[in-house]
Automatic annotation (TrEMBL):
Full protein name: Alcohol dehydrogenase catalytic domain-containing protein
Pfam families (UniProt xref): ADH_N (PF08240), ADH_zinc_N (PF00107)
Keyword Oxidoreductase set for record: yes
Organism for this UniProt entry: Poritiphilus flavus
UniProt keyword annotations, A-Z: Oxidoreductase
């Protein structure tokens, strides 16, 4: 069978090996689609921290079951499945507290261990969710949307709240749409006019604000001077991360979803006066995945607008680099196996 490996930064190879053999408790899967995310782009560029090569990427996966033992999830050969790519230890204090998403020993398929950029792949049945009624594009976007669902859960968003989401990449757009569908008033913020136009025209986000020196005033106008009761950062950019408190209401929550590699600094009186609740949101849980699947089943999520690029795996190596250019307008690229 064929697979694609990121051999060293900047180099993918299309190679051949024998199909994997299934261990006890595992299912053998045929990979159908692999979504590409920021992590994959960073891994390819060589600026992903703690990343080792060679590595088979791919953690946003849609698959069909080729072989599986009888199981209590009722999953059988031929079913379409979502794969939860986070492998937690089940023993550490986070796992014991119902937070396997921030397990001390967390291993993510396609990042810490080999992922799904291969024609066949073996995965523990524990990580599978049956989703035969969803399309393969929908199945492959469950993981990135679950990141947003987890962030909304961390903030315990209520209908009617004013939210600001900084960053209109795939994670930010996911948070915006999921929050809007749950009844929140959402405001999108980005430094790119093109991204804001996409959020408004294609994603139906009514309020978009350019992240410049006038942003605070515009958000004040849109919230009758109250500012946003929850602000989400989906940029991972130090400058953006340090500006989020300006858009937050007194008594509000600030939720960090994007990851920066730097130290952040806040003016203490500014965060103290607002009695800021600072929340980090890491990965997602099985429950977040299930909630996203429910939203996709309802047909309310604009999957076709989210998946901007689709390409056959044999051609991926030649075009991957072009996806790094913001001009390519990639929200979510899919590699078809
Ligand atoms: Zn991802
Ligand atoms: Zn653990």
């Amino acid at each position: 069978m064929k697979y694609i490996v990121c051999q060293t930064p900047g180099s993918f190879l299309l190679k051949e090996k024998s199909p994997p053999s299934r261990k006890k408790g595992e299912a053998l899967l045929k990979i159908v689609k692999v979504g590409i995310c920021g992590t994959d782009l960073h891994a390819f560029s060589g600026n992903q921290a703690f990343f080792t090569y060679p590595r088979i990427l791919g953690h946003e996966l849609s698959a069909e079951i080729l072989e599986i033992d009888e199981n209590d999830k009722g999953i059988i050969a031929g079913d379409k499945v979502v794969i939860m790519p986070y492998v937690s230890c089940g023993k550490c204090i986070a796992c014991r507290s119902g937070k396997p998403n921030c397990c001390q020993e967390l291993k993510v398929l396609g990042i810490h261990t080999d992922g799904g950029m291969q024609e066949q792949f073996c995965v523990s049945v524990d990580l599978l969710i049956k989703a035969t009624d969803l399309s393969h594009d929908e199945i492959a976007i469950v993981e990135p949307l679950a990141i947003g669902m987890h962030a909304l859960g961390r903030a315990q968003i209520q209908p009617g709240e004013n939210l600001v989401v900084m960053g209109c990449g795939p994670i930010g757009l996911g948070i915006l749409k999921l929050a809007q569908l749950s009844g929140a008033n959402v405001i999108a913020l980005d430094i790119s006019k093109d991204r804001l136009r996409y959020a408004k025209e294609v994603f139906g986000i009514k309020h978009t604000v350019l992240a410049d020196s006038g942003a605070r005033e515009k958000i004040a106008e849109l919230t009758t001077n109250n500012m946003a009761t929850a602000v989400f950062d989906a940029t991972g950019n130090k400058k953006a991360l340090e500006s989020g408190i300006d858009y937050m209401a007194h008594g509000g929550r600030y939720i960090l979803v994007g990851l920066s590699k730097e130290s952040l600094s806040f003016h203490h009186p500014a965060i103290h006066a607002k009695e800021t609740t600072l929340l980090c949101s890491r990965n997602a849980t099985m429950e977040d995945f299930r909630q996203v699947i429910q939203v996709l089943r309802s047909g309310q999520f604009p999957t076709a607008a989210f998946v901007t690029h689709n390409i056959d795996f044999t051609s991926m190596i030649n075009v991957f680099e072009s996806w790094l250019d913001p001009k390519a307008g990639v929200i979510k690229a899919m590699v078809n196996f």
